[in-house]
């Protein structure tokens, strides 16, 4: 009769999993979100070096369940004594897979490194690059998600795609920014 008890437990577990997954997969994907991201290199996360964290704000809008755009503003460095701030701005096309509770995504777009000195922006022509990120959002509630992502900033896309293995090697992943996000969805 032990076999019958194990089968009942497995059946109950399967029913519970389906009761959770089926309703979440039937939820419509969000049309947009406002979120906070916090980036750091892997070593900084492992060492809990909070001084190395890069805070950011993200706005997203989706045209349909799969395709959208996002804009980020990240504070890379700040020196309030000299009223100087180094910012990174990105505008990305986003492709996501809205699988209910889980939403994997990839994003690609231009990035701009800007400096604000004494309230005035300083523009430089060589401050443009590209941003490539991939991550996973977990929808905790219909209006709230948390996620994690890898983020690469590259100057030359052709070089990136020709040497993509280098970026996904151990040293490449250590030099990428790893982000943790919290998003309010609408």
Question: Which regions are unreliable across 5 or more consecutive residues at pLDDT < 50?
Answer: none
The H-and-E topology, N to C, reads as HEHEEEEEEEHHHE
Task: Characterize the largest beta sheet: strand count, sense, and whether it forms a barrel.
Answer: 8 strands, antiparallel, barrel
Number of DSSP helices? 5
The Rg value, from CA coordinates, equals: 20 Å
- Percent strand equals over 45%
Number of strands: 9
Helix fraction bin:
25-40%
**What structural class do the secondary elements suggest?**
alpha+beta
Structure write-up:
- Helices cover 25% and strands 53% of the residues.
- With 186 residues, the chain is α+β, with helices and mostly antiparallel strands.
- It has an eight-stranded antiparallel beta barrel.
- A hairpin with a 5-residue loop joins strand 4 (84-96) and strand 5 (102-117).
């Amino acid at each position: 009769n032990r076999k019958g008890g194990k089968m009942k437990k497995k059946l109950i577990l399967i029913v519970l999993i389906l009761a959770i997954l089926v309703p979440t997969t039937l939820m419509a994907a969000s049309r947009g979100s406002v979120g906070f991201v916090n980036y750091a290199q892997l070593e900084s996360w492992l060492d809990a070096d909070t001084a190395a964290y890069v805070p950011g704000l993200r706005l997203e809008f989706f045209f349909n369940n799969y395709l959208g755009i996002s804009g980020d503003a990240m504070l890379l460095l700040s020196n309030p004594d000299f009223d100087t701030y180094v910012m990174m701005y990105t505008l990305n096309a986003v492709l996501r897979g809205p699988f209910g509770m889980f939403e994997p995504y990839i994003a690609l777009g231009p990035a701009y490194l800007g400096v604000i000195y004494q309230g005035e922006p300083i523009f430089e022509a060589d401050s443009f690059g590209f941003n490539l990120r991939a991550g996973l959002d977990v929808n905790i509630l219909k209006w709230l998600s948390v996620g994690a992502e890898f983020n690469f900033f590259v100057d030359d896309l052709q070089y990136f795609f020709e040497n993509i293995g280098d970026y996904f090697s151990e040293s490449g992943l250590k030099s990428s920014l790893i982000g943790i996000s919290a998003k309010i969805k609408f």
